[in-house]
Amino acid sequence: MKELIIQTEELTKKYRGRCAVDHLNLEITKGDIFGFLGPNGAGKTTTIRMLLGLIQPTYGSIQIFGRDLHKDKLSILRRIGSLVEYPSYYGHLNAVDNLEAIRRIIDVPKSRIDEVLHIVSLSDESRRPVKGFSLGMKQRLGIAASLLANPDLLILDEPTNGLDPSGIHEIRELIKSLPKQYGITVLVSSHLLGEMEQMANTIGIIREGKMVFQDTIHNLSLKSTHDIELVVSEPDAALWLARDLGSRGLLHDGTLTFPGMNDPQIALLVKRLVENGHDIYRVEMKKKSLEDIFMQVIGEGSIL
């Protein structure tokens, strides 16, 4: 059984009677890149702030590294790096000097600055004033700062927000390298499934404070249903024949669409249509994209 790095039980946060996070059960295993997904306002940042001890839960428990965050907060937080929203920096200072200011506070070896700059691919830009950095470079500097203490767990809140495609690619490749090369477990939040699809092993989807899905992206796609489209010689008559067989469909622009049909149902319908003199021009399966499934989940709140 894999070691759990983060485990929450019934984690809840209420503000004036409103549930921002509602009985959240979260499990993240060691070495995983966990994509925490949901629309803006779903409760992602509130959850992250509770995991970092920045706000107290209304009730529920948080276990990190197998220990209770409430009881062992300081020792746990020493092993966590985080970047919540946008990084802070001194624009007139270069990257090395910015990291040196943090290094003195957390008391790590000075050699660690060069190490983290190498990890985030900023070694060649380390002596430039940070005010001249692109937004993507500033985000990488923020991640470098979060890595200074050599954490076992890295928590990133929407690290690609506002970046151009090149910046997004840089951050994505950096995050993907952390578990493989440095053994760091990563929790990264986003409202974009496409981004998580390219970097995360496991995802959790939160809607209105509730976890509505938690599993691999592959298993998310397996749980979806697909539509079957048929083009036949007499679509109106074919639609009624299908209804007699218990298959409800729709007719639009001469195309019959049947949601969620399995293989035996398709075979029976085609057989009956041929027996009743229909010409079958096309039978096609229309798969839902992951984006379609994601929008369905966050729109309806259905637990797959």
UniProtKB/TrEMBL annotation:
<comment type="similarity">
    <text>Belongs to the ABC transporter superfamily.</text>
</comment>
<dbReference type="GO" id="GO:0005524">
    <property type="term" value="F:ATP binding"/>
</dbReference>
<feature type="domain" description="ABC transporter">
    <location>
        <begin position="6"/>
        <end position="233"/>
    </location>
</feature>
<dbReference type="InterPro" id="IPR003439">
    <property type="entry name" value="ABC_transporter-like_ATP-bd"/>
</dbReference>
<protein>
    <submittedName>
        <fullName>ABC-2 type transport system ATP-binding protein</fullName>
    </submittedName>
</protein>
<dbReference type="GO" id="GO:0016887">
    <property type="term" value="F:ATP hydrolysis activity"/>
</dbReference>
<keyword id="KW-0813">Transport</keyword>
<dbReference type="Pfam" id="PF00005">
    <property type="entry name" value="ABC_tran"/>
</dbReference>
<keyword id="KW-0067">ATP-binding</keyword>
<dbReference type="InterPro" id="IPR027417">
    <property type="entry name" value="P-loop_NTPase"/>
</dbReference>
<dbReference type="InterPro" id="IPR003593">
    <property type="entry name" value="AAA+_ATPase"/>
</dbReference>
<dbReference type="InterPro" id="IPR017871">
    <property type="entry name" value="ABC_transporter-like_CS"/>
</dbReference>
<keyword id="KW-0547">Nucleotide-binding</keyword>
